[in-house]
Amino acid sequence: MKRISNNQDEVEVYSDSGITAENPAALYENVMFPHPPQTLYEALQQWSHRHKRKLYALLLLTIVSSLFVGLRSSTPDSPEKLMRQYFGRFNGHADDWQYSIEGFHFTRAHLDALFPVIARFTLGHRGALETLRDKSTRELFARDQFETDLLVYAAMQEGILDQADAKSVLENSMRHAIADYYVQKKLESGNADYRGSVGDAEALAYYEKNQELYAKNGVAKAPAIEMIRTILSSLKRETHRQQMRVDRAKLIQVLQERFGPRFREGKE
């Protein structure tokens, strides 16, 4: 042992093993110990130096394994796991539950937050205004959510989501839903109305313009107006779908120029 003095501070450095503060690389050198270990610490020290290559390999293996596990954990979850995570959000009792499935309670607050999101996506911002004020439509929405979750829960319990084709089918549905959502978000407008609804004035004006035709065929005014309303609504919805297809094609063309994807047509 030697004593190093620096100003008035003194530090004891044990150099019996050849490891000194003056040589930090000594840990990586083959150290010759002058005598057998006298303490447990010295025994551990000497053993560590004799097996340092194995210890370094073990350390490297641990690091690589941790990275591998981390990468594996970031892979997409299965449909089964995703749905169990969804149901897990509603596990336990809640006083304001709207519907329950065994131990899972789905709250009114959850549905009240979800309802306007789905309404605007389905009907457009302007088209959803009337729907959001309609309590009966809100109750129909809640009933639909209940029946959907009930079917999903049954599928989980029966192991259907573990079947080989489940992931492909559900992934395909999700991809189409994402594509539709993306198109609507890119074309989103505060005046969008996807309902295709027809008011009384519009239906009546169409009837008055063509009332001779309805009278000739023996169709009374009230059923004629209702028929007109149904037909015009259907035509409006189809016009909207056609416009969406046109806008979708334009957007795809822009994305092709942006990302440079290629599509190879099948050969005969």
What does this entry look like structurally?
The chain is mostly helical. The chain has ten helices and four strands; from the N terminus they run E-E-H-H-H-E-E-H-H-H-H-H-H-H. The protein has helices at residues 40-50, 52-73, 79-88, 108-123, 125-132, 135-157, 164-186, 200-209, 211-216, 221-259; strands at 2-6, 9-13, 97-101, 104-107. Strands 1-2 form a two-stranded antiparallel ribbon. It has a two-stranded antiparallel sheet with strand order 3-4. Helix 4 packs across helix 5 and helix 8 packs across helix 10 (221-259). The longest helix is centred in the C-terminal third of the chain and has 39 residues, at 221-259. It is elongated and about 120 Å long. The model is unreliable at 1-15 (pLDDT under 50).
What topology emerges from the helices and strands here?
Layout: E1 2-6, E2 9-13, H1 40-50, H2 52-73, H3 79-88, E3 97-101, E4 104-107, H4 108-123, H5 125-132, H6 135-157, H7 164-186, H8 200-209, H9 211-216, H10 221-259
Antiparallel strand pairs: 1-2, 3-4
List keywords for this structure.
two-stranded antiparallel sheet; single chain; 268 residues; mainly alpha; 4 strands; 10 helices; 7% strand
Summarize this, please?
The chain is mainly α. The chain has helices at residues 40-50, 52-73, 79-88, 108-123, 125-132, 135-157, 164-186, 200-209, 211-216, 221-259, and strands at 2-6, 9-13, 97-101, 104-107.
